Amino acid sequence: MDLGPPVMVRKQRSISQLKDSHKPILPAEILSSILEYLPVADLIRFARVSRRMQEMVYDDTRWVFRLRLMGVWNEAEARKRFEEAMKRRRATMAAKVAEETKKAVEMGVIPLAAVVGPGGAAANRTSTLFDACEEENRAKLQREADRRRAQARPLSDGFDMMSITPLTAELPRASIRDPASLLKVLPSVKSVRGFARQEYGRVYGALAPLYFDLAKAKTHTDPVVFRIFRDPEQQAQVLAQLRVFARSDTAYGWGERLERLNLMTGIFENAALREFEGGYESGDIDGRMKRYAHVLILLNGGAACIQLFVQKHPVMFEREKLGNPMDSFDTPTADSFTLDPSSEFFNQLSAVLNEQATVIDRVFPADVNVMLPFLERVAEDVVGEYITPILDEAHARNMEMYLKAVAGIYSQCMAFAGTLKPTKGSREVFESDVLDVMNRVFEPHVDLYLQDELEYFRKKSQEEVDKWERKILDADAATESFYMSNINREADKRDFLSTFKKVILMPVSVIPLPFANRNSVIIEAKSIEQSPYSNSDRLSVQGPESVPGTPGPEGRKSPMPPPTTELAAKAAIMNTRLEGIRSLFSLEVALSLVHNAKESLERAALFARSGGQTGEEAKEQCEAIFIALLQVLGPRHVKTGFDKAVEHLSAYNPRAATSHNHVAPLVTFLELVNVGDLIQQMIDVFYETELVAPKLTDRNDFLNPAAKEKKRFEQMLDERVAAGLNMGIDVLMNEVDHIFATTQLGTDFNPGVLGEVGGVGDFDIGPTDTARQVVDVVGGHTRLLVGSTDKNVLDVFNQEVGVRLFASLCKHIKRQRISVDGAIKLISDMNHYHSYIQSIKIKSLDPYFNALRELAQIYLIDPSHARQMATVIADPSRFGGIFRVEEVYEYATRREDWYRVKREVERAMYGIGCVVC
């Protein structure tokens, strides 16, 4: 029977099954996770199962984790120690290699030339020597040394020699020999990579017996720790270490053990607190209070004794002795408020706290900050309870009183914080900590205060503007009532149309026409003098300043009687309003609004310095106050005033004015421009001083609401000024046209129009009175803008005035009859206008007035030189491109002798190839 093959097969199967039986059933990761929940004794047993299990238990990261749970592992220290160890190891290896190389050279194993360079120095390269026999012997010696060290491993190596028998109530012999060494176990732990197991083993061997003994104790007299340590300081120190050691207990039942430990610690803490309280009540500051304060601080930081110390202070229960909040309102004057009682309150409280700071330094160690929690409790229970009734009562009585009370008491709190003295345990930022405590007292009041501050400023600003507007309206009503007081309305209504025709349309007839002679002018003048409306019944446009009997905005009166007709009265009223155009907005009102905003900002800025969220909210509210200022001052006051001023300018009629030396509404509007410029500069200074300098806003942030509103205000002001100046140019040119029409006599440029015989020498060669008056009016108004308006705006204004003046002169020349003798006057006038244009230094206007000077030359040419006249007319380059030939020809037709020279001039122009008609 052949049994060979089956027997071999069974043997092979049994070998394979034996190999499979050594494979772990669970993955190594799961086993490693299970080990986290095993007691240390079980971990030692688990490490003895196999080498793989030993490696798993001895893994350094496992013990580093436990040290970290206790908070005694310092990763930075471990990294530093590791780097230093590596440096020492590399140095040792380098020395060892150098020693072996030296021996090999001496024995002749390697030649000296292999390690020594040509210059006698060691070659800068590494030589590797390998001897198989030598290496094998070295490995055997190393294994033998490891085996001997394993057999005689000392206690410092960790848990290898630790007893795993059940713990008893007796302490290890090391603790009995030196109990004081247990007090320094945790502080002496070193963070060394690769030795975490040994460090934890040393801590476990010292504290675990006490920990488990305390966990099994039934009463506070059972634990061994209270028998071997009799001093409260030592007991507190050991209990504190046991609380730290308990953090590394992750085995089953850790919650019950921790609860028992906390119970025993609480019993000890209560006993120490009773001793501390007894010393507090008996005044034993340097005895029982100081000792048991240190005991409680060693136990758990001393939070319980600090809280007891704070709560037991008499100031918490006798705060009424410091002052009554209602004393600030109990003043002889009704609805008045004073900060003197609150100032006295803070002075007394400061003295109490500074006295208590000395007691704190005597009782508590220098590394414990007791003053700060004491201040926090005082701020909450004493300061807060004092200021809240004051602010609530002030808010109920008067809003302005409330705002001043908040700012005043907050300032006193900040001053009070500066009077407190730090203790030895206070931090270096003690002042900042105290300020934070005081700010927290005001946190419940800040939101309401900031909102009320903004609303109060808005309301007060609106009332300021409304009050000013009512004053202006009352002044206007008083003026109107004065002018209308002497009028028979029924009689005036019946002849209103006739009065209107005779008075309003009368000045039109005195305007000299281009072909009117002197006789017609004299006739018209005589008819006006003989008119029944030439005296008191004539339309009067004199203002309050020129008529002494009219009342001004303040209601001034004089002996002069009021007008006797309704039309004259209405004209006087309109003129009064035009004269009072400067009252459309007031610099005084703007100053008052800015002053109110400054007061509100100064109060709100106190909270902006506190920092944190409250500080940011206060800064936003400061910006909101500035925005409210601009909204009231801009659209509500300045913009409305400019709009009304432009409306008055548009209603100006130069024919109704008695004086043409200046345009009164335009002069006053330009004064408004000066006031507006002052207001803008005032806002700029206010913005830089009150907002930018204290860092309440960021002017470089183009999205900042305050900066955007400021730009919007400036844009509004520029637009209103531009609109007014545009209307002012129209009014100014209307005035110039009126001066041309009413003052330019027909004999100015045509002396022989009335039949007189005379030459050039019979009259003054200088400019006419009309030219002088026009230049004075235009120049006087433009000079009012110098210094108050941006140079670019002023240049644009002057340029537009110059262009419009040029157009008016062109129309004016076309309405005149100019003789050869009168051409001299015309040339003098053109030179006068040219000199004015050069004085304003707008070079773009020079070609226009140069062309006018050249144009005036065609009237000086003698009629006998018709061909020369034609040459001048047909030369387009002579006028710099300003006038075309057709236009020059049209101006030439205004010559007094044109119909005598027309045929000769046109024939000459045809001869030179110029056809214009």
From TrEMBL:
InterPro entries: F-box-like_dom_sf, F-box_dom, Sec10-like, Sec10_HB
Pfam families from the UniProt entry: F-box-like, Sec10_HB
Disordered: annotated segments: 533-564
Organism domain of life: Eukaryota
F-box domain location: 26-66
Listed name of the protein: F-box protein: endocytic membrane traffic, recycling ReCYcling 1
Annotated source species: Discina gigas
